[in-house]
Amino acid sequence: MRLVFLGAPGVGKGTQADRVSANFNQPKISTGDLLREAVRNKTELGQEAKRYMDQGQLVPDSVVIGLVRDRVGQPACARGFILDGFPRTVPQAEELAMMLHECRTQLDRVVNFRVPREQVVRRLSGRRSCPACQTVFHVEFAPPAKSGVCDRCGQGLIQRSDDEPETIEARLRVYEEQTTPLVDYYRGKDLLVDLDASGAVDSVYDKLAKLLPRHGAT
Ligand code: AMP
């Protein structure tokens, strides 16, 4: 299965992509995760990307396209993948179509995660993550057993710098302006399915699984 998860920051794409990845044994490719890893490793690319990420802006297309091209071409992705947070612009989508065409394949489905804006802001502002093992928690919806401490590895949890209120607003604005055109782009290609992602993680997953190609949805 070759899937794209589309939707505003905070709609739960990453959480659901992790589940689909584990249950269907397909690698998840998250450009946000790849960029944060580059930032942590202080690579040249990471240092360039950080300037945009800290302001809630998109990293230039050429940078993220290079990251995705490296992954999609790897043997682990030959049987499929879940793209989380890519593409985010029409040029990225066009580039993805070309990459897949070169591998004589194409996307199976694009899932459009939809959540009301107030909920997105609540989800993003309560999100906390572990800087060591990257596990993600939420102060309200998925709190760790001990406040502020990672259940998995005991490290202190942090808030992503781009989950602070001003940056959240900027990211949502950027999403509206630069990423929502992809909804029509993929609808026009008959690849888009809408998902009401406003419920609890388990119930969203149940709805999502029914939309995936292996379940015979059209
Ligand atoms: P995410 O974890 O998907 O919310 O991404 C965090 C940040 O990484 C975004 O706010 C952007 O600055 C950057 N980023 C992630 N994916 C992309 C992409 N496909 N194109 C441009 N920038 C991206």
Number of domains: 1
Number of strands: 7
Number of helices: 9
Give the CATH architecture: 3-Layer(aba) Sandwich
Structural class: alpha/beta
Percent in helix: 40-55%
CATH class: Alpha Beta
Briefly note the CATH topology name: Rossmann fold
Task: Please provide a written account of the structure.
By secondary structure, the chain is an alpha/beta fold. The protein has one domain: P-loop containing nucleotide triphosphate hydrolases (Rossmann fold), CATH 3.40.50.300. 46% of the residues lie in helices and 13% in strands. A five-stranded parallel β-sheet has the order 2-3-1-4-7, with helices on both faces. Strands 5-6 form a two-stranded antiparallel sheet. Strand 5 and strand 6 form a beta hairpin. Helix 4 packs parallel to helix 5. The longest helix has 15 residues. The chain is globular, with a radius of gyration of 17 Å. The model has no long low-confidence stretch (mean pLDDT 92). The site of adenosine monophosphate (AMP) has 17 residues, from helix 2 and helix 3. Adenosine monophosphate (AMP) binds next to helix 2 and helix 3.
Key structural traits:
single chain, 218 residues, alpha/beta, Rossmann fold, five-stranded parallel beta sheet, two-stranded antiparallel sheet, 9 helices, 7 strands, globular, binds adenosine monophosphate
